[in-house]
Amino acid sequence: MPWETQRAEPAEVPAQPPIGTALLRGARGRCPVCGQGHLFDGYLKLVRECSVCHAPLGRIRADDAPPYFTILIAGHVLLPFVFMIEKAWHPPMWVHMTIWLPLFAIVCTLLLRPVKGAVVAWMLRLGLTGDEQGAPIVVPVRRGPGDA
Ligand SMILES: [Zn+2]
């Protein structure tokens, strides 16, 4: 599919709920604004806009924030258990690796999507809708069969 760069039009964001409500809706994978439309099209890809309230969700670029917060949360939840087990039983390193590496991977995989939803809700609440400083937005362009 061909791509072109278009100048971003300022996004019109409907009236927003309180920040706590928006964060919870985002974490549940729902539109942070209306709470009814879906936020994701797949595991982590955002929908272009909310199907109900047309909030411009797909223009928000969360970048590295969701993985950062996911690792932060997973580390604070699991590391105390790693240290408690090490202090109590001193298991060999291969036991730690066999238990903790898959567990960290599973916890991070389960946390990443709700954390990204909450980050997107937070960014939308802050007005970070992807058109800051007139940054161009890459959009797919449909061409007819006669176009070159
Ligand atoms: Zn919506």
Automatic annotation (TrEMBL):
Record flagged with keyword Membrane: yes
InterPro entries for the chain: DUF983
Alphabetical UniProt keywords: Membrane, Transmembrane, Transmembrane helix
Entry-linked Pfam families: DUF983
Superkingdom of the organism of origin: Bacteria
Transmembrane segments: 68-85, 97-115
Name listed for the protein in its UniProt record: DUF983 domain-containing protein
